[in-house]
Amino acid sequence: MIVLGIFVLLLAPFFTGALITTIFRERKAGHVIVYVTGLLSLFVFFLGFLLIALKLDFDLKRLERYYFSFISVTSLLGAIFSFRKRDYKKKPFEKAWCVIIPAILLGVFSFVYLSPSVINDDTWETVVTTIYTGKIHEYSALTGKQMVAGLPIYNKIYIMPIFIACMCDFFKIPVRVMMQFLIPLIVYICNLSLVYTISKKLNVKNKDCFMLVYMLLLLAGTYLPKTGVPVTVGYALLREGYSGYAVCYALTVPLVIILLCEKKYLHALFMATSALGLLRLDRIFYTFVKEPVKTFGFINEAGKLAIIFIVCIIIFIFKKTKEKTSSIEKLTIFIPIVFISNTVVTLLEEIHEKKYRIAYLLGVSFIILSSVSFMPFEDADTLKETLEYEQEVRDIIEKNGAKDKCIWADERVMEVARRVDPSVKTLYSRSSISEYMQGLYYEDESYAWDYYKLFRNEVQFEETTVKDIFALSRSAEDIVNHAYEEGLDIIIK
Fold first, then answer.
1. CA 482 to CA 478: how far, in whole Å?
2. How far apart are the C-alpha atoms of 26 and 198, rounded to whole Å?
3. Cα(90)–Cα(370) distance, rounded to whole angstroms?
């Protein structure tokens, strides 16, 4: 079943894309355009099925049956059209080994050596909780308890967690394999292919340099503002490639820009619809619309790519007054790092002496990396470290008999416990004490900070230090009694 699931993830989007491009009468769509069209179409269809499931109170198994039956039909129909004569364009990378080798190294480092980020996201917990309970959004992913307040609709239609849960449950694919390797690698490869296609439409002469600058900008974009909303393709793609942000930033936006450039407006509109289920719309609205000034401050504190982007816009405006610019150049403003890459290579064309070209590229590289203080992947842990700690937490759970119990422990233990064993419940969620996860949990957690502070105080007393002792707003006895009222079973120190 695992092998079948991988084949479905690889072939169903291509066949579905063949069907969709045929419907839109696009016989000359390239392989990458067809595949990404199919993949985004599967997400659009899944959004529709998820809305029906929420309305009719489907469980996970029922949603799986209906959805996979539907995409089987679209794939079979698409297979018929894919074997008909089609004028596929050439492969996206033509002998560009100086691009392919760095791309492989960056991909292996990001998705094999490092562990993905979950600091601002509850997708992992939602996947394992949904599979364990067989219910959709009935149990809290962050505590394991049955929800009372529930979730607003914008949280419920965030499709990636439930889509991944369906794939992992139906095809028995391990969650880590799906979230660490399969989805991130597919999105990464497709993104580079789409950007390379954009470079052709921009008539970039030095495409190899363009792609290398783009990958360097991906690397320099591996930072996250305190709002918890990724603002760079780099963080979304390289640090949490399993997420809806990654799919939207890396696939939806580039594909829509390519289609708009080719004046395929209906196709572009259909692809843009996928963003409704791929983005956490309420978080984006709150951070960028309600508090734009504060949000910009957080973005500027985390990294400085925004400043480089603004400089490139100034150069673009100056250039526009001297020569005519194409529509694709204007559209790339919606992909800032593509816009920056194009500006870099455009300026490079005006430098003719080799030594000055080298000095220019070295200077650009220095400026780009300085935007992230020369510390890309600053928040990352290696996969080995993550797996070792997860095993430690499994041992703690087994040693304390914490399966199917509500625990009160160190916040990091509780965080990992929810991912490695969804039967374990936690006294409070990690979103209640994390600045990166505000707006992901709606249950009453008025005591959460008291639980956190009291536990830290007890630990500090045992270690005979007072540097981190917190003042409590309630008595310790009241806090402990309330914890037991909320279902606490075990305290793990």
1. 6
2. 18
3. 37
